[in-house]
Amino acid sequence: MKFVIVSGNPKKDGLTKNMTDEIVRGAVDGGAEVEIINVCQMKGCHSCKDGKCLTEHRCVFGNDGFSEAQEKIRNADAVAFISPVYWEEVSEVMKSFLDRLRRCESSTFF
Fold first, then answer.
1. pLDDT tens-digit map of 62-99
2. How far apart are CA 12 and CA 58, in angstroms?
C-alpha cells in the first residue's frame, strides 16, 4: 500500500511533527510504504489565465516540486493532509497547495 502524507508544517518540531511521526509509525506498522511531501517550499496558486491547470491538469508553475507531488498523490492508495492550525485554518502553504491541486484536478479527482 502506498501512503502519501502531504505536510504543510513549516516547523521541524512541535505538535504537528509529533502527530506526523505517529501517523507514519502506525502506517509502517500496518505494512504501508510511506512518503512525506512537505509543501512549504512550493509556490502559491496564481490563478493564471493560461488554463493548463483546467485543460491539461498540470500547473504551469510546476517546476517547484508540485508536479511530482501531484503525481505521487494520484498514484497513492491513501493520502493524509497534515497542517498546523493557525487562526482556525490550515497553514498558508497548505492552503495554497490545495488551491493548486484543486485547479489541476478539478475534473479528475473531485
1. 678 898 999 999 999 999 999 998 888 898 889 989 98
2. 30
The answer to whether residue 24 is domain-embedded is yes
Tell me, what's the pLDDT at 83?
Answer: 93
State the residue range of the domain holding 44: 2-105
CATH number at residue 23: 3.40.50.360
List b or e across 66-102, with b for residues whose CB sees 16 or more CB atoms inside 10 angstroms. Answer: beebbeebeebeeebbbbbeeeeebbebbbbbbebbe
Give me the percent of the chain exceeding a pLDDT of 90: 51
Does residue 110 belong to any structural domain of this protein?
A: no
| Residue 30 counted as domain residue | yes
Q: In angstroms, how far is CA 13 from the centroid of its own chain?
A: 19
Query: How many angstroms separate the CA atoms of 76 and 58, rounded?
Result: 18
Rg of the chain taking only CA atoms, in angstroms: 14
Helix (H, G, I), strand (E, B) or coil at 38: strand
Structural domains counted in the chain: 1
